[in-house]
Specification:
259 residues, alpha/beta, Rossmann fold, 7-stranded parallel β-sheet, 7 strands
């Protein structure tokens, strides 16, 4: 006889602590608000402190619990300091959303060393360090956890028409990192999954549209998706309902790209 509820679905995250990167705009801002609305205590992280404070005020006004914490994803010292502050103020982190990312927007042969390092550090090295630090604490305390990495459909396909070579490379690596960490930490009940969004409204997308024009007219549904349309997938991956789901990549692209 099953002891699971019928249906085995809940979005109640009360008692959970979530650490979300890149919360000053776009998807990360939406993720933070959704997790807080479902009862999680949320560490809001990013580089633009004034935006973190504004988001914290908004979440608190709606009854949520959060802490704005400055974070530079290109600095391991900043990453570890932000994690320590979050744990001190909110408790042990059991939900990690690796959302922060930056585009390259430059042809590979024209890319500076500084831009190359920034894209690799923000999109791949930072999430690697964060994941390992969070997992280490969970394993030491024998606690389960959920890690959700945000990749991109660019991890699976790319054209030469848009300068996204390095971005695509890092997001492909995020997919493989997801699968590898999932296998290593499954025995510790830490689920690691990945969302690969297509074209969603964000500052990064606005920048791309300003460079290449309105790409939505080439999509079957001729639209750019709203971050709210990712809520259900995020909540599934951090909830008990996804207990048996790990090492999985979910594409959310509105049918925009090839298969």
């Amino acid at each position: 006889m099953s002891e699971f509820p019928l249906p085995n679905v809940s979005t109640d995250l009360s008692g959970q602590v979530a650490f979300v990167t890149g919360t000053t705009s776009g998807l990360g801002k939406r993720f933070a608000k959704v997790l807080a609305a479902c009862g999680a205590k949320v560490a809001l992280t990013g580089r633009r402190v004034e935006r973190l404070e504004a988001l914290a005020d908004e979440i608190r006004a709606d009854g949520g619990v959060c802490e704005p914490i400055p974070l530079d994803m290109t600095s391991r010292e900043s990453i570890r300091a932000a994690l320590s502050e979050a744990e001190e103020k909110l408790g042990t982190i059991q939900i990690l959303i690796n959302n922060a990312g930056i585009p390259d927007a430059e042809r590979a042969i024209k890319m500076s060393d500084e831009l190359t390092d920034a894209v690799f550090d923000t999109n791949l090295v930072g999430p690697w360090v964060l994941s390992c630090e969070v997992a280490r604490k969970l394993i030491e305390q024998k606690l389960p956890g959920r890690i959700v990495n945000i990749a991109s459909v660019a991890a699976f396909s790319i054209t030469g028409a848009v300068a996204t070579t390095l971005y695509s490379t890092t997001k492909s690596a995020v997919v493989r990192m997801t699968e590898s960490h999932a296998m290593e930490w499954a025995r510790n009940h830490i689920n690691v999954n990945c969302i690969a969004p297509g074209a969603f409204s964000s500052e990064m997308m606005d920048g791309m549209l300003s460079r290449v024009g309105d790409i939505s007219q080439g999509f079957p549904r001729k639209r750019i998706c709203d971050p709210a349309q990712m809520d259900s997938t995020l909540l599934f991956l951090v909830s008990p309902a996804s207990e048996c789901v790990t090492g999985t990549v979910i594409k959310i692209d509105d049918g925009q790209g090839p298969r």
